[in-house]
């Protein structure tokens, strides 16, 4: 169990293609600054949140209506001792039908309980996927900064 990566899922009434489109509209649901393209295979983007988080993602899988994978090729998390904890991890979005609804299974493969950032990062993913992304999917409205105080 110690090496199990963080996962969460949501069910929505929208189609797999609508869910896929929302995932790839990263600026619409992921708080912070995003530089680069987020909606095609091979694209790379850099994410920054204040002075706490900087990471570079490459889109390594992009299957419309089914799956998106971001490979974290570089990372700097200033709030933990090992600032590169995310480096080499994969952020995976898998879309399927379940009981007449669309299920989005989210996994941050490599974000494990032994990481210092696991607690804070898993809470943040819960807010982003279960809150901001769900709202973008269901309402079409972009979200405000989830971490604003």
Q: What oligomeric arrangement do these chains adopt?
A: single chain
CATH topology description: Alpha-D-Glucose-1,6-Bisphosphate, Chain A, domain 4
The structure class reads alpha+beta
Element-level helix/strand string: EHEEEEEEH
Q: How are the strands ordered across the major sheet? A: 1-7-6-5-4-3-2
CATH homologous superfamily label: START domain
Q: Termini separation (Å)?
A: 34 Å
Largest beta sheet, briefly?
A: 7 strands, antiparallel
CATH architecture: 2-Layer Sandwich
Number of strands: 7
> Which CATH class is shown?
Alpha Beta
Domain unit count: 1
| Radius of gyration from the alpha-carbon trace, in angstroms | 15 Å
Instruction: Specify the number of helices.
Output: 2
- Helical content (DSSP H or I, runs of 4+): 10-25%
| Mean pLDDT, all residues | 91
How much strand content do the residues show?
35-45%
């Amino acid at each position: 169990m110690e090496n199990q990566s963080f996962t969460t899922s949501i069910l929505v009434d929208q189609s797999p293609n609508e869910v896929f489109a929302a995932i790839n509209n990263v600026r619409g649901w992921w708080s912070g600054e995003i530089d680069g393209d987020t909606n095609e295979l091979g694209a790379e983007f850099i994410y920054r949140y204040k002075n706490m988080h900087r990471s570079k993602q490459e889109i390594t899988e992009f299957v419309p209506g089914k799956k998106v994978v971001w490979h974290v090729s570089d990372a700097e998390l200033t709030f933990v001792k090992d600032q590169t904890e995310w480096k080499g991890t994969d952020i995976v979005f898998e879309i399927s039908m379940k009981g007449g609804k669309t299920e989005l299974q989210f996994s941050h493969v490599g974000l494990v309980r032994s990481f210092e950032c696991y607690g804070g990062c898993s809470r943040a993913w819960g807010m982003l996927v279960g809150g901001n992304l769900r709202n973008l999917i269901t309402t079409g409205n972009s979200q405000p900064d989830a971490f604003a105080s």
